[in-house]
Amino acid sequence: MRLLRSTDLALRVLMRLAVEDGPTPTTREVANDMDVPYTHLAKVVAELQHLGLLVARRGRGGGLALTEKGRTASVGAVVRTFEGCGDVVECEGANPCPLNSACRLRGALRRAQEAFFATLDPLTVADMVAPPTGPLLLEIGRPGV
Ligand code: SF4
C-alpha cells in the first residue's frame, strides 16, 4: 500500500514540530528543511491546523507549534484522515470492474487495508521522534546542516 504524499508530509511536519526546541518555525522554513514545495506543505499545514494538531501564529515571533493533541495523536488516525476510507483499488468509476458485485478479493483487500491502519493506531507522534529519529530531525532543522 502506497501512502499519498500529503499523508507522509503531514506526519513529517508533526514529527518535525514534536522535536522543535527553539523559536517556532514558519511554514516556509519547514518546507525548506523538508525540501518540499511550500504550496503543497501549506495545504497540509492548514488541514493539520483544522484538526487541532498544530497552531499557526502569524506575525513577528509567529510560526508553527504542535499542540498537545498533535503530540499524542495516533499515527493511524492521521493516516486514516489523510488517506480517506476509499478502496485501495478502483472497482467502480467510469469503467467498473465486472466482478464488482461479487468479488472476494475486494473484501480481502479492505481487511488488509484496515489491518494496515490498525497497526499504526497505537503509535503516537511522540513515539515516532524517540531516538534516533528525534535527534536527527533536530539536526536537519539546524541552519547550515
Ligand atoms: S477484481 Fe475485485 S478488487 Fe479487483 S477491481 Fe474487480 S471488484 Fe475490485
UniProtKB/TrEMBL annotation:
SUPFAM superfamilies: Winged helix' DNA-binding domain (SSF46785). One of its GO terms (molecular function) is DNA binding. Pfam families: Rrf2 (PF02082). Its cofactor is [2Fe-2S] cluster. GO terms for cellular component: cytosol. Gene3D superfamilies: Winged helix-like DNA-binding domain superfamily/Winged helix DNA-binding domain (1.10.10.10). It comes from the Bacteria. Keywords: DNA-binding. InterPro entries: Tscrpt_reg_Rrf2 (IPR000944), WH-like_DNA-bd_sf (IPR036388), WH_DNA-bd_sf (IPR036390). Signal peptide: none annotated. This is Rrf2 family transcriptional regulator. The lineage of its organism: Bacteria, Bacillati, Actinomycetota, Actinomycetes, Kitasatosporales.
